Amino acid sequence: MTKTEITYNLPQKVGDYYIREANSIDHCIRANWPDYPDEYVLFNSSSRFLKFEEQINKFRDKITDNNIILSVLSSNGILVGHFSILQIDWKEKKIGNMGIRIHPNYCNKGVGSLILEWISNFFHSHGFLQIKLDVLSSNKRAIRCYEKVGFRSIENVIEKSESFTIMQKIL
């Protein structure tokens, strides 16, 4: 299994949305989403402060890495979500980390659960056995979302003075 074989199966329709591989324009759109509420300000994109060319180069660095898959969720041409599948172990069929961002206007509407269910089912259908992720321990909304779709907390770690919960889902 390779990155190309995985992304060949995109786009896919999921409910009222489409999931497809991300492109450089998506990266720039994501960088300019409106701010999250104060308690989630940490999730505002730092790329918004970069020049356009720097944003594109940052995207290219990620998209060319064979152990990263960048995808987006859209509806009627609106970028609703962005997710990164990271630290892919192709031999062991495990995903070592993943990141998800939902457009601030679409939070608390079931979109995160929808993406997580799709990611789990999609990668399971391609032979993957496990997904791990880290989440800020203070981000109770995200932790509830992950637990709702079958992720379980396996450890807590401190990194750069922040507490993270490591979660895992066996597929």
UniProtKB/TrEMBL annotation:
Keyword Transferase, does the record have it?
yes
Q: Which ranges of the sequence are coiled-coil?
A: none
Q: Which domain of life is it from?
A: Bacteria
Please name the CDD domains in this protein's record. NAT_SF (cd04301)
Its keywords, alphabetically, are: Transferase
**A Pfam family per the record:** Acetyltransf_1
**What InterPro entries does the record tag this protein with?**
Acyl_CoA_acyltransferase, GNAT_dom
Q: Which residues form the N-acetyltransferase domain?
A: 17-171
Question: Which Gene Ontology terms cover its molecular function?
Answer: acyltransferase activity, transferring groups other than amino-acyl groups
**Does the keyword section mention DNA-binding?**
no
**Name of this chain's protein:** RimJ/RimL family protein N-acetyltransferase
